[in-house]
Amino acid sequence: MAQTVDIQGVDELLARGAQLVEVLPREEYDELHLPGATNLPLKELDSERAGQLDRERPVIVYCWDALCDMSPRAATRLAELGFEAYDYDLSKVDWMAHGRPMEGEAADRPTALTYVRHDVATCRIDDHAEDVRRQIESSPYGFALALADGVVLGRVRRSRLEGVPGDTCVERLMELGPSTTRPHTDPDELAGKLRRSGSSTAILTTPEAVLIGVVRTADLHR
């Protein structure tokens, strides 16, 4: 049977020399595909076309996202044909959501990642208010992001630190669950989202909530 892999599994398999195959229709492949991937649409996946693949190397297949069932069907078909087949079930959207590079006709179009900045202040939840206040004062933004192993847990605004004892822990001051955005988001879509919310800054994270950086509304409108 075919096995399911996540993006880390894909990286490990590619390091072993695996073949990467997109099973979406040709026009979708031509628009955007993972670097080095070949195209073998599910509707064309018969034993003859499968024979174009190297049986001595693992095969990773993918489609659009976790709701698309083309990749599990293709992986199962290849496994039945005797290949060491793997289904990257989160597929193309997951790859883009991690900010990974793409190839294809639309690969050069701007995304939120195009405008990312890495100068936002960060802290831990056990840091003290006085330390965080200094970090915010030396940054271009009025807040710091509270992280644990790179994962965004909350946001501490400058206004929340006013009049607070310097030894107060961040955990007591932070705003929980700030909105985040994936790096492949369309810039116009992101600008509209920020405008509607009245925000001037978007927080970019991976699907695992690991901080990538921030995007400013002012940069999106340039």
Low-confidence stretches: none
Shape: elongated
Please give the alpha-carbon distance between the first and last residues.
51 Å
Percent of residues in helices comes to 25-40%
Reported CATH architecture of the largest domain: Roll
Summarize the structure in words.
The protein starts with a strand and ends with a helix. The model has no long low-confidence stretch (mean pLDDT 95). It has eight helices and eleven strands. The chain is elongated, with a radius of gyration of 22 Å. It has 222 residues and is of the alpha/beta class. The protein folds into two domains: 3-105, Rhodanese-like domain (Oxidized Rhodanese, domain 1), CATH 3.40.250; 113-220, CBS-domain (Roll). Strand 10 (201-205) and strand 11 form a beta hairpin. The chain has a five-stranded parallel beta sheet.
Provide keyphrases for this structure:
222 residues; Oxidized Rhodanese, domain 1; CBS-domain; 8 helices; elongated
Q: How is the topology of this model organized?
A:
Layout: E1 3-5, H1 7-15, E2 19-22, H2 26-31, E3 38-39, H3 47-50, E4 59-62, H4 70-80, E5 85-88, H5 91-97, E6 121-123, H6 129-137, E7 143-148, E8 151-157, E9 175-176, H7 187-197, E10 201-205, E11 211-216, H8 217-220
Parallel strand pairs: 1-5, 2-3, 2-4, 4-5, 6-7
Antiparallel strand pairs: 7-8, 8-9, 10-11
In short:
With 222 residues, the chain is α/β, with parallel strands linked by helices. The chain is 27% helix and 21% strand.
